[in-house]
Amino acid sequence: MTIAVGSDHRGIELKNKIATFLKEKGIRVQDQGAFTTDTSDYPTYALKVAMKVKNKKARFGILVCYSGQGMAIAANKVKGIRAAVAWEPEIGRLARAHNNANIIVLPAGFIKTAKQWRGSIQRFLNTKFEGNRHQKRLDIINKYENMH
How far is residue 23's CA from residue 29's CA, in Å, rounded to a whole number? Predict the structure, then answer.
């Protein structure tokens, strides 16, 4: 499995920890930046990761910024991307099970323990989309996305 990761300057420390964690699990990581703590613009990295997922160069994406919100907003502008902010394992699970999210966004400023981010990522990656009533809702979103 290949996962694209990205962060802005405020998420770089956590992004680097996540990349190491994934590699230790045998997952191929495509790091889309940022690579320094110099001030950077989160949309740049969110869009790079989103395009990797959209173009099937990566199965999933993981984004990190301070609140998670900016990354999620930017990534969700890419057709076919469903980026969800998760800071607890159950949120990560629900993002996959109910929303078929393909990118998890972690808010570095609000994650206090490795257990939080590791658990959120593991639950996200190990959960399958439930379909059924949830698919109906995604179909509504997809129809709108295709019309506009």
Answer: 7
